[in-house]
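Q: My collaborator sent me two sequences in one message, no labels, and asked for predicted structures for both. Can we handle them in order? The first one she listed is below.
A: Yes, handling them in the order given. First sequence, followed by its structure tokens:
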Amino acid sequence: MAVNYYNKGYNCGEAIIKSVNKKNDTNIPVSIGSPLGRGMSVGSVCGAVAAGVVTIGFLKGRNNASEENNASKHSRDLMNKVKEKFGVETCIELKRKGVSCNEIVKFVDEYLVDFNNA
């Protein structure tokens, strides 16, 4: 689903958030993803991955310091899965390796479905 949003003109971060909203009946502001595209505009951490981490926080984050921070565990898992699959998590290096935006958007989107169903 996120790939469809990406192909309609949303950046990778926005596409992930729109997909999460649709699948979870949530209302995370899509605008949160706007600055995340193109590796936060400088080729750093992939915007789809960053948006995945943001949505994990929304779905599983804590509201009190006394609570266990499960979102941190899940975000680490996402980062590790991205590194296992692609070897890197930065936009510039993903592109150098020939990984398309559609490919990483799809991977993160599928990870979030599996994560949320676990």
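Q: And the one she listed second?
A: Here it is, processed independently of the first:
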Amino acid sequence: MKTALISDIHGNHVALNTVLNDLETQKPDKLICLGDVATIGPQPAQVLDTLLTLDCVFIQGNHDIAMLHPQKANDYKIHPDLHENLYWTIDQTTPQHKAFLESFQFSFSMDLEPHINLLCFHASPKSNIDVILPSTPYSILDDLFADTTADIMAGGHTHRQMLRKFHDRLIVNPGSVGTSFATPPPNNLPMLSPWVEYTIIETIAGSVQVSFHRLPMDVPAVLEAVRQSHMPNSAWWLRQYQT
């Protein structure tokens, strides 16, 4: 079985189209989106319109739920510099888009094979704001995954691709479709990398193969979309992808 994981599109329709075009050649049996679909980027409505057409499982990220409850943006760890963008994004969307976001699941579990279970979430099985990194101590992981026996745990949120062994299980992060981080964001907004990311998990006769995919982003098209959008954080976007 071939399962495609995408995450953290963040309103970048140019990047989403690049990934979807590539997935046409991959022909996955299942498509799962791990959340954070519309905020930050210049094309939230276009992204949501496209996602509505897909046969896909959608997980609710912290930015997705913040769009439904923007007054709780701090609780959902939305960076203060992005609060104005959050309200701008909401203004670009329709009641249909809101109902779509409300339909997103907190987590999703499925059997890839009879004895291989996949659990999907945005940040962790316990919260959509936790952070799981290659350096996260085992003691923290033991707590975050205490209530699941899944063989493969897949989450996004950090915008960094990752494959990590955890006891006899795997933790997978597909990276970010629309805003792959070139630098982690300790305090300020990060710089972005000029590529799009997704991941394929393939199971064959009990074996698991995880392949990370990274494709060039059409940077001129993204920056033109930013200029046309007049969104609040345009200046930050226009500083990206400098070589």
